[in-house]
Each structure stands twice: as C-alpha cells, then as structure tokens.
Amino acid sequence: MDLSQNIKAVQEEIAAAARAAGRDPASVALCAATKVQTDETIRAAIAAGIRLCGENRVQELTAHLAADAYAGAEVHFIGHLQTNKVKQVVGRVSLIHSVGSPRLLQAIDAQADKLGIVQDILLEVNVAEEESKGGCLPKDLSALAELAWGCPHVRLRGLMAIPPISSSPGANRKYFAQIRRSLVDIKAKMTDNQDIMDCLSMGMSADYMDAIAEGATLVRVGTALFGPRPPMGAAR
What we know:
- This protein is an alpha/beta fold.
- The protein has one domain: Alanine racemase (TIM Barrel), CATH 3.20.20.
- The protein has helices at 3-20, 39-47, 58-66, 102-115, 141-149, 173-189, 208-213, 223-226; strands at residues 29-33, 52-55, 74-77, 95-99, 119-125, 154-161, 199-201, 218-221.
- An eight-stranded parallel beta sheet has the order 7-6-5-4-3-2-1-8.
- The longest helix has 18 residues, at 3-20.
C-alpha cells in the first residue's frame, strides 16, 4: 500500500466529483477514518496531506490523543458514542458526528456546560431505518433538531448519515438526496442559526463520489486510503 498515492487519488476523485456537480472542490472536506490504524500510520497520513481525522472508538481516540498522533490535523468523532463515554470526547474533538438521540444530546450539552464550552455536533439520521444502525429516524429528526437548538452548550452544524451497504454504483444516491433535503428543511425552520448549519457528512469509500454529487460537504474515507482494515487488536 502506498498511502501517499492513495491520498492523492482520493483527493483527485473528490475534486473531480465536485467539479462534475458544479461545485468548488474546496467545498468538500476529506475526513480520514482512522479506525484501527496505528499512531505511525496516522502521522504518515497527516504528513502526506490529511488535515482531518475521524475516529470511531473512544478508546482509540484517547490513546491517539495521548500519543499526540493527530498533531497537525483536526479531529472528529464519527462513531457510535455511548452516554457513559461522553466525558472522554466532549471538548477533545472539534465535531461529534453521531448524535442520534435526545439522551445523548443532553449528555453532551451537560458535559460541555461543565467545561464551559460549546460543542459542535451533527445529528445522525438512520436514513434507511435499519434496525442494526444508530441515529434518529427521519420522522423524529425535526424534534431532535429543535431540542438541539435549545441546548446552550451545543451548536448544531448539520447532519450525518450512513446508508445501507450497496455494491451497485448509484444505489445510495436516493438516500443522500433525502438527507440533503432534510438539511434544507431544517434550515428553513431556523431564524438565527442558518449560516452555521453547513455540514452534510455522508459518503464513505464505496460511495463518496455519489454523496458529493448529492451535496456532501464532508466524506468519511478509510479503506480507500489505508487499505483493508487490520483485525481488531492488531493496531498496537
């Protein structure tokens, strides 16, 4: 695996997809999904041009932070977050992507209050209503967004979604389009915070070009950058 070449290839594909959609390539951020990667691999990715890392697991996040592995890059939390681990994440990442319930939202707000900060978040939408996935159902999104607007120590930046796994090109475009429309609908109901609702986190290694075509502003890419993930426990 040539990490530098992989990063360059993905960056070029992102730029091409953005231009094909009539968008500025700079309007799409590449988030390197660093799940099960070593400190050394993360440092190498940053040296090769990665400016944003996304971590899935709290234990890995805290270990990489302790090792200063993310130096030179912004860090997001993109995985499932349990309420009992909120203290380990709030204030340590610039954006939490996976807020899908009132309970988690309120836990994040309470911890941010204790720290005297405002934590940026995305609301995760279970766009295909899959039982195996987290996130709020589309029918509950408006109510969750209203709750987020009322949390003084949380800033709602946009939406995140993980559509079903698909091997057919273009199969997930309908879900990406649905999430884009949901963001438009939510912003239309807002009066003071429209300008900060600017993030659509959708698209991964298999479908990020389709996500960009439908309006993604951030794509979370792991395998296309780092190759197949090593088994759990092999990272260190």
